[in-house]
Design a protein that fits this description.
This protein is an alpha/beta fold and 289 residues long. It has ten helices and eleven strands. This is PhnD/SsuA/transferrin family substrate-binding protein.
Amino acid sequence: MRRRNFLGYALLFLVGCRASQPLSNVLASRDKLRFTVTDLTSVDELEQYYGGFRTTLSTILNLPIEWYAVPNFMAAAVALQNDQVDFVLAGPSEYVTIHARTNAIPLVGVTRPNYYSLLCVRAESEIEGVEDLEGKTIAMWSIGSTSGHLGPTKLLIDGGLDPKTDVKVEMLRGEGLDALKEGRVNAWGGTFLRYQNHLQQRGWSEGEFRVLVRGALLPNDLFMVSSRFSEAEVQELRSQLLTHQDSLLTSLAEADDDKYVGARFVEAQDEDYDMVREVYQAIGQGEFL
């Protein structure tokens, strides 16, 4: 995570000014856009990591954009229901849960290079394939995490295992790979980038572990908008995001953990997130849907 300096904000503002065009009258009746990011809990964090993006988008839309901080993604759903927030950036799992409760409309997806999950074991492990994990203990990140829970669980399902009965899952967050190295668990499931970063931070060699399987790219993060917006407003916002994505992505690239470096905006449809729904059903957590 990095703090932007004053020069960075100034440059982002100028980029937004150059990109801006006169906006159609579709959004003229709105005097502001209220914005939140579901995994940040304070206005200070929102400003620290997404302040440049807010400035650029505000210039493009010719609308003030206000922060609305939420303590968790369920609070974002409540805020949408109560007309306290208009515009939300969320991960795939969060989107599915919020959409189920609010009918929030997907605007654009935000691609994340190398955003896929994997399952790995210690290099000397006798486990050779996913099927060998039956009866074993697997460390994952946290319940509902797209890359740290649902993605690895999908790999178990695709490998023929029932995640409810065939394996034991422990949610160890950042301690999962340490637990694997120490032999306290038999395998680890999580995102490729977290795996790489953890090895670098610990000074470990990739040769100490063996990847059993890696999954396909996970569904994109996305921007969604309140269902109270008209179809014309939705189309206008989507068009502006896609048209000005170069300047917006410049300001988004320094978001927390640099996770959007190399990202692109793409059109998003609700069905893009059916994989998330499939896994929630498979683990008996249909209440999230």
